[in-house]
Specification:
By secondary structure, the chain is mostly helical. 61% of the residues lie in helices and 8% in strands. The protein has one domain (2-171).
Length: 196
């Protein structure tokens, strides 16, 4: 049951921002995920984190899930036209919320040394959304606030989730990534192994 929850949280964390976003064809579609990738990847490459990897996964999954729910809920409630006139879902900026949630997760887990780089990427995303006329500046400001708040929501859920499931994972739990070749198609894939 514990391992199944870890897998479900990981998948939810990976899918929540993707389902919340719409591809616009701009570079922000990809850069928005750099802070999240930093948050998940720095510990794997040996950068000292405050918490163990299971806690990082739980905090990230709940942060991005709450961010997606808040952003999509507000987009349904508030009918604001985008500056380029393409749709009526401008407020708030989901790209910016995703980027700032990841940046704040990095800052909380690794400090300002890494957090500054993550925040620079998040700020670039906010700038790009306004420069490409897909959002007004206040859309990105609200997205940034939602993202930062969502990161704190994510970390506030770690202990209750672990307590609810009687789940106390050791800090030294690991995640391994390794390449594999899919036997039928010959495609190069990545395998993930959780050890705890």
């Amino acid at each position: 049951m514990k391992r199944l929850l870890l897998v479900v949280l990981t998948v939810a964390m990976a899918l929540a921002p993707a389902r919340a976003q719409r591809n616009t064809g701009y570079w922000e579609d990809y850069v928005q995920y750099i802070p999240a990738a930093m948050n998940l990847g720095l510990d794997l490459v040996g950068v000292q984190s405050v918490d163990g990897y299971p806690d990082i996964l739980i905090a990230s999954a709940t942060a991005f899930l709450s961010e997606a729910l808040i952003v999509n809920g507000l987009k349904l409630i508030i009918d604001e036209e985008r500056p380029n006139g393409t749709s009526m879902n401008s407020f708030p900026s989901g790209h910016t919320a995703t980027a700032y949630a990841g940046a704040e997760l990095v800052r909380l887990e690794y400090g300002w040394k890494w957090g500054a780089a993550a925040y620079a990427a998040a700020t670039a995303v906010a700038y790009g959304r306004v420069a490409h006329r897909t959002h007004w500046w206040w859309d990105t400001a609200a997205g940034a606030a939602i993202g930062i708040a969502s990161a704190h929501i994510g970390y506030s859920t770690v202990r209750p989730i672990k307590k609810m499931f009687g789940w106390e994972l050791p800090k030294e739990a690991t995640v391994s990534l390794y390449p594999v070749v899919e036997p039928r198609s010959g495609a190069l894939c990545t395998a993930v192994a959780f050890t705890f």
